[in-house]
Amino acid sequence: MQEKIATLSEAIELVGDGQVVALQNMATQAAPMALVRELIRQQKRDLALIVLVGGMAVDWLAAAGVIDRLIGAAVSMEQFGLCRQYRYAVEAGRIKVEELSESVLNARLGAGARNLPFLPTRGAIGTDLIARNPDNLKMLDDPFGGHPVLACRALVPDVALVHAHRADRYGNVQYEPTILWPDIGIMPMAAKRVIVTAEEIVDTEILRRNPDRTRLPGFIVDAVVEVPYGAHPTSFFPNYTYDSGFHREWAEAARDRATATAFIDRYVRTPSSQQEYVDAVGDVSELSTIQTAEHSG
Predict the structure, then answer these.
(1) How many C-beta atoms surround the C-beta of residue 126 within 10 A?
(2) Same domain, 141 and 236
(3) DSSP string, 18-46
């Protein structure tokens, strides 16, 4: 079997300018932030980004000029406010948006994962999303005599970026059961290439103790990088919660182009490794305290 272990730099070198990149996360949860930072450090350009619900990662990529198109349902930092740098870029025309509902986006990715030309749904019928996406959404009559359905054209990302709980050196990837469990495989299974950061790289025998938790098989993964706290400042249950203070700091900095750039210089461009990033942020171990207490109680 081929080993898939790489550094962050080596992994992101697999992403080419102008490619379509799927980013697996939900707003303040489970974003592959270490990979996002490396995209910025390597000055990738003209990427189209796919997100279900994007958060700080999208804001950073917008502020750094990495993305020029977004395909997704929503972009928000939830209780921490708007993604202002993304909003400014959209308003200025630097980023074009292909707005889809979550059901439609999942159908498009599902078709890509199954090597089908499209999948049907009824999730967006009655909305203006159909008129806004004429090249990718088409109403069809049910050939079996039922109600019409919406055909959602297959979406095949060039690369999917994901963060996981653990992996082995061959790229077999495990997750703990979480609220994201049902959707973990949809983006990477649809993508041509898959890059994974994991909280830890473990021996294959450890994965075999819980084979039901192996959600991505090694044969679809192109690179795996061990990055503890690789989702910070988003949460990664049950390992750690989101960093509220860091989110608030960015939300304030993002109001202005100059302060946003200074923030990214400090926390993204200057640190050359995950450890240097963690050192710049401060003590992140306290983010695990709540989860540890819950499990030990």
Answers:
(1) 9
(2) no
(3) T-EEEE--BTTBS--HHHHHHHHHTT--S
Residue 147 sits in which domain range? 119-153
Residue 76 is encoded by which pair of tokens?
């928000």
- What single DSSP character describes residue 243? -
Q: What are phi and psi of 169, to 5 degrees?
A: -70, -15
Q: Which of 8-17, 88-97, 246-255, 276-285 has the lowest mean pLDDT?
A: 276-285
Residue at 1: amino acid letter: M
CA 143 to chain centre: 36
State the DSSP code for 288: G
Q: How confident is the model at residue 133 (pLDDT cuts 50, 70, 90)?
A: very high
| 114 occurs within a structural domain | no
Give 212-260 pLDDT, tens digit per residue: 999 999 999 999 999 999 999 999 999 999 999 999 999 999 999 999 9
Nearest C-alpha neighbor of 62 from the set 96, 34, 31, 32:
96
> Tokens 């270490």 correspond to what residue?
34
Q: Which residues of 271-284 are buried (b: 16+ CB within 10 A; e: fewer)?
A: beebeebbeebeeb
3-state secondary structure of 140: strand
* Co-location of 201 and 271 in the same domain: yes
At 79-105, the pLDDT tens digits run 999 999 999 999 999 999 999 999 999
Phi and psi at 196, nearest 5°, equal -125, 130
Q: How far apart are CA 46 and CA 249, in angstroms?
A: 27
Note if the bond before 134 is cis, omega within 30 degrees: no
**In which band, very low, low, confident or very high, does the pLDDT at 182 lie, cut at 50, 70 and 90?**
low
